[in-house]
Amino acid sequence: MNRNKRRPPEKNRHMPVAVRCFLWGRSAGRCEFSGCNRLLCQHPETKQMVNLAEVAHIVGFSKDGPRGEAELSAELVKDPANLMLLCGLCHDTIDDRKDDYPVARLTTMKRAHERRIETVTSISEDRKRHIVLYGANVGEQSSPLSYLAAASAMFPEAYPAETTPIDLEMKNSAFRDRDATFWEIERLNLVRLVDQRLRPRLAAKEIAQLAVFAIAPQPLLMLLGCLLSDITDAVVHQLHREPRDWRWRRRREVKPFKVAAPTTVTGGHVALVLAVSATVTDQRVVDVLGAGVAIWRLDAEAPDKDFLRSRDQLEVFRRLVRETLDRIKARHGEQATLHVFPALPVAAAVEFGRVISPKADIHMVIHDQNTAAGGFVRAIELNTTRTAARLA
């Protein structure tokens, strides 16, 4: 494409200021070519304020131009419905390859871009959320967290309060959950980053609401939730497998859960199984804690890795966790230690931690499924006495 080619003389292409203002407003000053979205008031490298915008015609400027029509070109030359705001590169593209970009295709691009801008800008000021990203290695896999994917998942319900996330991830960690020091290193890192990057801003009331996106072993997700607590207003997102994104689905029928209490209390260990994304048998708990353990269960009727699809489902899970923890404390006493065996979607693991009442709930030991170790292993403790001191 020849960027030095002559456009029609400006006097033949003069566009009224009102029309140009209309185009800038409808496009939010961004290139309307699908997939470009370039900001047209700023140089991409120097960041200086410059005007990179060109007004392009969908039906050609003249009957002999690209997509020109004898009866329509003169009539539509200044009609905003026939004009697109483009960067120079995209303007050249649609004119040089006019057969690839017919009127119908450009009209679709324009409508889609302007609809998106209208949707985003219609979100009210009180719906901004600060994005929190937290990741830790799961087995051999590192966490695939992305600010852009997170921001996209919030629309149109809310929008990012800032152009960068509050990042709680330990970058380029070589530690894996099979390593003896993994849990303590990751625990300390998470606590310190929350103390440094999040807690002061919450205390100063700089943050009204959080949008939480996390991928990590479940004990760490529960710790994250416990550090956030349910005092902090937060929307916790779930990474879905099909299609793969973080966007909550629309309201749908809530799939059922089952809560089961032990028939007898032996005075031995107390366990809580949370089997939502996969089945966890009682025998796997006995293999860790020995015979005579009192096992409580909160199960999905049909455990599935993609079980959690809507926030309604997550709200039901939160309520059942709260009720079950109250029942466990009433039955086994405030001095008991609760061993938790989770198989949960990531959002449910975070919300489990947020449900915990730092000053009221019993001490918990969170176990993690580790295939290399042959089953569940003791991972971290949620010592609610120390957590309460941190949150005070």
Give me the number of helical elements: 11
Low-confidence stretches: 1-6, 8-12, 386-392
Q: The biggest beta sheet, please? A: 6 strands, mixed
Helix content: 25-40%
Which CATH architecture of the largest domain would you pick?
A: 3-Layer(aba) Sandwich
| CATH topology category name of the largest domain | Rossmann fold
pLDDT averaged residue by residue: 85
Principal-axis shape? elongated
Order of helices and strands: HHEEHHEHEEHEHEEEHEHEHEEH
Radius of gyration: 28 Å
Number of beta-strand segments = 13
Number of domains: 3
Secondary structural class: alpha/beta
Tell me, what is the CATH class of the largest domain? Alpha Beta
* Percent of sequence in beta strands: 15-25%
Q: For the largest beta sheet, what order do the strands appear in spatially?
A: 8-10-9-11-12-13
- Cα(first) to Cα(last) distance is 64 Å
